[in-house]
Design goal:
With 395 residues, this protein is an alpha/beta fold. It is built from 14 helices and 11 strands. Strands 1, 2, 3, 4, 5, 6 and 9 form a 7-stranded parallel β-sheet that branches. Helix 6 (195-212) runs antiparallel to helix 7 (214-222), helix 6 (195-212) runs parallel beside helix 11 (285-302) and helix 11 packs across helix 14 (375-391).
């Protein structure tokens, strides 16, 4: 007897083009990078666009809104800026307020933005996350152009395919995977950054080098002094390579939308995400990842996955670049005297579901996945970092 129920299966292949452009002074009169991306679909029908600016940019670039407006005015036969550039909050706390998302939706509705319209988000990683999420959920997805403006977002998060906001007190609990129409890395935005934001992108470069590319790690070592003094040539070189490696992983990993239980690019991040929360985001993402890498490097020596000399070599590079590898929050306990940082392991697993999957290294350029972490060894690694921190003279 045949079943009343049947299953129909079809394999659907979706191809995405993910483009990252490198330029400088995007909104100068002669730079056609953005105009070329916004090519009208039909002659005589200018491309509609709306621009969101991370308000933190105005401190160092007060004329940026007018430069953008002027750029569009000079190309009004092809481009239609539907309103003056709008400002949005930046920094991780901005991702805690759902009202910001609703305001962006209101803007998009008011200006009748459709799936052929473009949202241009200019800012740091948090602003890109927030505007990207609102864009991806309006009309099931408008076209998005990302302009990362920090070294961290230009070399890592800004070239990715994830958007998110924080909810239930958890980082990026609400979000989407959405491939932007283009990412524009404009190095001119890096000039006026404060030192900690210039430095932040270096740590994601170290991370991706440790898990994927030994020669890149050695290149960072060679350029460490230039990077620590923020030489623009060295910074641009490292950001380009870091962005390329992150993009290559997204394109070739076989899991760009993280359907599995592994996140190889999140080496050091289970500690980092928890530290950010515990510090109420006093500790920025780059500084938190530096600490997270140090924890996992020392942990790897304790389970005999990597040689001590290799782990110390990596930690010393992190410190040469200007990062601190310890914070007292690593030793915070709750009312029951249980380590708070260790709760980050469960939250990390919960975010993806399935078994715990943590990326460690077995050598420089050799990432490896483990599915269990020994809490005794983690605590030992934390204790060593505290000793190391107190033994190093203050700079």
């Amino acid at each position: 007897m045949s079943s009343r129920f049947a299953t129909i299966k079809r394999n659907i292949r979706l191809d995405f083009t993910h483009r990252v452009f490198f330029t400088c002074d995007s909104f100068s009169a002669t730079n056609e990078t953005l105009a070329d991306i916004l090519q009208p679909r039909q002659k005589g029908h200018p491309t509609k666009a709306i621009v969101y600016l991370d308000e933190g940019l105005l401190d160092g670039m007060p004329n940026l809104p007018e430069q953008i407006a002027s750029y569009f005015r000079s190309r009004e036969d092809r481009l239609d800026l539907v309103c003056p550039p709008k400002f949005c909050s930046g920094g991780e706390p901005a991702k805690n307020n759902f009202q910001y998302i609703e305001q962006i939706w209101n803007d998009l509705h008011k200006h009748a933005m459709c799936r052929h319209s473009y949202v241009i988000a200019i800012g740091g990683g948090a602003a890109l996350d927030m505007v990207g999420f609102a864009t991806a959920t309006a009309h099931r997805g408008l076209r998005l152009i990302r302009y990362p403006t920090t070294s961290l977002s230009q070399g890592d998060g800004g070239v990715g395919v994830k958007n998110g906001i924080n909810y239930f007190g958890k980082k990026n609990w609400v979000g989407t995977f959405s491939v932007p129409d283009a990412v524009v890395n404009d190095f001119s935005f890096l000039r006026g950054l404060p030192s900690n934001q210039k430095r932040a992108g270096f740590i994601e470069a170290v991370k991706v080098a440790l898990i994927r590319d030994r020669s890149f790690f050695e290149q960072i070592e060679e350029k460490a002094d230039e990077l620590a003094s923020f030489d623009m040539g060295a910074m641009e070189e490292v950001i380009r390579k870091s962005a390329a490696l992150h993009l290559d992983h997204i394109a070739t990993s076989g899991d760009p939308f993280e359907k599995g239980s592994a996140r190889p690019l999140d080496f050091g991040h289970w500690v980092a995400h928890k530290l950010e929360q515990l510090s109420d985001f006093r500790i920025g993402h780059g500084d938190a990842v530096a600490i997270g890498l140090a924890v996992d490097l020392l942990y790897s020596t304790r389970i005999r996955l990597v040689e001590e000399t290799t782990a110390y070599r990596a930690i010393e590079l992190i410190e040469r670049l200007g990062f601190t590898t310890y914070d007292a929050l690593l030793h915070q306990v709750d009312a029951d005297n249980i380590s708070v940082i260790l709760k980050g392991l469960d939250e990390f697993r919960e975010h993806l579901g399935g078994e715990l999957t943590i990326t460690l290294i077995q050598g420089i350029g050799e990432g490896v996945e483990v599915h269990a972490m020994d809490k005794v060894h983690i605590k030992s690694a934390l204790d060593e970092l505290r000793k190391r921190h107190h033994a190093i003279p203050a700079k």
